[in-house]
Amino acid sequence: MTLENFREFIIESDDSEKQLLFIQKFLFHGIPTVFKDREDDYFEFRNRIANKFGVGFHEVFIVGSAKLGFSYYKGTEFDYDSDIDVVIVNEKLFEEFYFKITEYQYQLDRQYKTVDLKELKVYNDFLRYLVKGWMRPDKLPTSFQVNLLKSEWFDFFESISYDRSEVGNYKVAAGLFKNYEYLEKYYTRSIEDVYNSLTKN
């Protein structure tokens, strides 16, 4: 599918039910472009991540341009400068990381920990995603990343990047959704935004 075809399908998805079916079919179902003709490798890649975090392989997805072959937001093609965007959907794992971040927030409240204005801006950005049921560790301030998630999250995804896993010579980055409802809501809103921009005239 081309970007033009994709946008045509979006224009045809003119209500919330159609948009939900659209994301289920095109964003979450099927083999990603980066694994074209390598279905077994895609399973092994997902299973590698699932085993690390104690979730089911079916709770691990590739999204974004690595899935489609293009970014429908940026209008750019997937290439070797693109990241592999992974999404994990698991409530138990979400709560485990959420608890750690909550503890860190209490330390901030009591001024046992401090962040500068730049980090605070990043943290506020993180919270905007968190209230939507999406935890994006890349949006945490550096001090949070080092203290809470470096060995558990960032070191692992670094270890499967750049020809160190089935996906090939790409950087692998990941986010964590609390459940499928939040996942679908976020991406449905994303498609709704694109629909509105394509049909505003």
From TrEMBL:
InterPro entries: NT_sf
Protein name per the record: Uncharacterized protein
Organism expressing this protein natively: Flavobacterium aquatile LMG 4008 = ATCC 11947
